[in-house]
Write a structure and sequence with these properties.
Elements: H1 3-24, E1 46-52, E2 62-67, E3 77-81, H2 86-98, E4 106-107
Antiparallel strand pairs: 1-2, 1-4, 2-3
């Protein structure tokens, strides 16, 4: 009989620890983008984008594009964009100017 309450307490403690570890973390322990897209992506194909600054576990600025779905049945696709290319630099400047409320994503229409 004493085993059941102890098991429940341990399970509850494990769930709380998992929740807290997810709330404290500010992202993955690695880079999201291993290789950025080096070619230009037409802005008509981009729905929104996110920029992640350098962090302790990833020394790269990461730009993640969410592309518009090809048709209504398809899902949006995400691609990484190299921050070193001209388009990456332009999106970083737009992010600095337009993302005044620290939103996690920014619509591409806000930049042009």
């Amino acid at each position: 009989m004493a085993f059941l309450p102890r098991a429940f307490v341990l399970l509850l403690l494990a769930v709380v620890c998992i929740q807290l570890s997810g709330a404290v973390a500010d992202g993955p322990d690695r880079c999201w983008c291993l290789n950025g897209v080096t070619k230009y992506v037409p802005r008509e194909e981009i729905e929104e984008f996110s920029i992640f600054p350098k962090k302790s576990k990833c020394g790269n600025v990461e730009i993640i594009l969410t592309l518009k779905p090809v048709n209504k049945a398809s899902k949006a696709v995400q691609r990484c964009l190299s921050p070193d290319k001209k388009q990456g630099s332009n999106l970083q400047l737009c992010w600095i100017r337009k993302n005044i409320n620290n939103s996690p994503t920014l619509k591409i229409s806000n930049c042009f």
